[in-house]
Amino acid sequence: MSKKQFAIIGMGRFGRATAQKLCAMGHDVLAVDKNEDLINAAADEVTHAVIADITDEDAVADLGLSNFDAVVVTIGHNLQASVMSVVLAKEAGARYVVAKAMGDLHAKILEKVGADRIVMPERDMGIRLAQRLVANNVMDFMDLSEKYTFTEIRLPEKWAGKNLRQLDMRAKYGANVVAVRTPSGTLNISPAADEPLHSGDCLIMVAPKGVVEKLDNMLG
After folding, report:
1. Is 57 strand, coil or helix?
2. Do 22 and 83 reside in the same domain of the chain?
3. Cα(57)–Cα(137) distance, rounded to whole angstroms?
4. Fewer CB within 10 Å, N or C, the chain?
């Protein structure tokens, strides 16, 4: 994986966690916030940390955002600061801006002012939690698009000993199994179609929306 450069604007819990993870993955991270205490707390966890008012055009211009692979605006509760950050980042030449939204209206505004991608962590986490609470076999769940989901399901006992060719997930459900996770945590990427599956395995797959619920209801 090639090393990339990211600017994270806003060092609240979401912003700091994003910055920490990107740094742990070996990427260069610039942390930006006007709150000195938040910057001091995050300084040892990122490549660079800068105190700056991201609603000030001159301050944003000095950050050199056009040099980064992506700029992530994690400000949520202050709508004006969130929108201004996106606008100024794009005007400063940012190639790809990801912005956090607190709701649908906030998301629409961010999209209109130029955000390339909108994320709503609280909503997305709530959807994933609900899915896991009501589904017996679903281990994890994430929307990839309006049509597809990325899902990890626990292998039903009735499928133990069978292989992917026999299950024929693509033909029956339109689902593509991309990996198998064993009980020990080993991840088998692109598993062989004739390799037997075992009790305790988990199937990681990309599937059309609605398929996971049908599978869970069918398998109990």
Report:
1. helix
2. yes
3. 50
4. N
Q: Which of 119, 140, 162 marks a domain boundary? A: 119
150 beta partners: 142, 206
Average pLDDT for 76-91: 93
Residues 25 and 113 reside in one and the same domain: yes
**CA pseudo-torsion sign 116, 120, 121, 123:** negative
- 113 shares a domain with 23: yes
Neighbours of 113 (CB within 10 A): 16
Radius of gyration, CA atoms only, the chain: 21
The answer to whether the CB of 43 falls within 8 A of the CB of 19 is no
Model confidence, pTM: 0.67
The DSSP call for residue 45 is G
Query: Is 151:127 a contact under the CB 8 Å cutoff?
Result: no
pLDDT at 136 over 80: no
End-to-end CA distance of the chain: 39
CA dihedral 207, 124, 31, 20 (to 10 degrees): -70
Q: Which amino acid is at 29?
A: V
> From residue 11, how far is each of 44, 104, 135, 151, 203 by CA, in Å?
13, 23, 35, 30, 36
Compute how many other C-beta atoms are within 10 angstroms of the C-beta atom of residue 35.
12
